[in-house]
Amino acid sequence: MSDFDLVLSGTVVTADRIIPGGFVAVRDGKIALIGQGEAPAAREKHALGEALILPGAIDAQVHSLSQKDQEDFLWSTRSAAAGGVTTIVDMPYDEGNLVCSAAAVARKIAHASPQARVDYALYGTIDPQEGPARIPEMVAAGVAAFKFSTFGTDAKRFPRIPPALLADCFAAIAPTGLTAGVHNEIHEAVDAHMARVRASGVTDWRAHGLSRPPITELLADVEIFETGALTGCPAHVVHSSLARGPELAARYRAEGFAATVEVCIHYLTLDEENDVRRLGGKAKINPPIRPRAEVEALWRQVTLGHVTLVSTDHVSWSEDRKTKPAMLDNASGVPGLEVMLPLFVKGALERGIPLTWAARLMAANPAKHFRIDHEKGALEIGKDADIAVLTPEPLLYDASASGHNVVGWSPYHGIELPWRVSTTFLRGKLAFDGRDVLAEPGSGRFVRPPATLPIGN
């Protein structure tokens, strides 16, 4: 009898190569063997034909607790499992608990662990009144990165971090080897353009894009990357809606600086002239959805290798907060965990982009970025057997029909996905069978960087 617990055979997709007729073998929750040709015996064996076998995705940007008593980890991780996402990295701006101390990190772990159906890592941030003093204690508590913003919506809940304080925070983070991620919109510029839009009387779908033109984002990109260059801290733009963002990051990297950039799946899928016009508040996101030409320009940045991560910036606002008549009165953000992976596969195949980019941008790179690649992010021997299987079964996406989302709306409603997530395994255990999420609350665990970080790695 074989000592493998599970063997999957099909088209294996890694960050470096595609293996037709390949297989992945699992033992004790870890990848034990990868090969091509005849698959070995196992206690459980699945011949998946043309199916794609990918590393489980790591969603680098999730807001499980932005709206109190709404989604929570119970639902965000359910959506994740149904979408082939086996680890989420949750943001620190929780309603009622800004994650800005070791105690706040501990509270969030205690809150999330009984609910989580997939694994999770955490961002930390600061209280502007305290400055960077608590950064070392949050590193010790296990945060995987830090998040700041050059734009603020609330002095406590989502504060603007001005340039001098941002530099102090970067300097405090630099010795730890962790990354400083920053929301990239200049507060004063957004305020000025917002005032112009309100004065003009424009309140429909056009208002949001007009209130945040490209200059408001690009000025922030430069501030973030320059602050990283001056302090020696890895600098990360958390959501670039413009191709210029990845271009800037590539230039800084060429000069030897640690500069990375994230592109959310909505910026690779939706456009302003069609989708925002059609959806109104349900497509309001910061920074805004841009014109179709910018969508295609971002895909070109993917092919050039200038984009570091693809994420969702997932948040499931209740529908009443996304359907107000005046565009600017709506909450910003959309759900996306259930469809990030198949949406990226769809977009890549339509443009002739190798699917190795899916494994790289949504698994290998996020694992390295958050310093959890010692156990996550790849179909490699010794790493967690986190696996997503996609099959060529066209699916017309309907968020209200799947039952895996706390809300029944989605900006991706009605999009035909040529490949669907048919199976998700978390550490070798079946988490999603193509219809039902089988992972129970508490199945997920908190993952963190090693206690001793490889500084500068």
What does it look like?
The chain has 457 residues and is α/β, with parallel strands linked by helices. Helices cover 30% and strands 22% of the residues.
Output the number of helix runs: 13
Low-confidence regions = none
Tertiary shape: globular
Gap between N and C termini: 42 Å
Q: Overall mean pLDDT score?
A: 96
Strand proportion: 15-25%
Strand order of the largest sheet: 5-6-9-10-11-12-13-14
Question: Which class of secondary structure composition applies to the elements?
Answer: alpha/beta
Rg on CA atoms, Å:
21 Å
Number of strands: 19
Percent of residues in helices comes to: 25-40%
- Main sheet record: 8 strands, parallel
Features of the shown structure:
single chain, 457 residues, alpha/beta, 8-stranded parallel sheet, 7-stranded mixed sheet, 13 helices, 30% helix, globular
How would you concisely characterize the structure shown here?
This protein is an alpha/beta fold. It has 13 helices and 19 strands.
Strand and helix layout:
Layout: E1 6-13, E2 18-27, E3 30-36, E4 44-55, E5 57-62, H1 72-82, E6 85-90, E7 93-94, E8 97-98, H2 102-112, E9 119-124, H3 135-141, E10 145-149, H4 163-173, E11 180-183, H5 187-200, H6 206-211, H7 214-231, E12 235-237, H8 244-254, E13 259-264, H9 272-279, H10 292-304, E14 309-311, H11 340-350, H12 356-369, E15 387-391, E16 395-396, H13 399-402, E17 416-417, E18 420-426, E19 429-432
Parallel strand pairs: 1-4, 5-6, 6-9, 9-10, 10-11, 11-12, 12-13, 13-14
Antiparallel strand pairs: 1-2, 2-3, 4-15, 7-8, 15-18, 16-17, 18-19
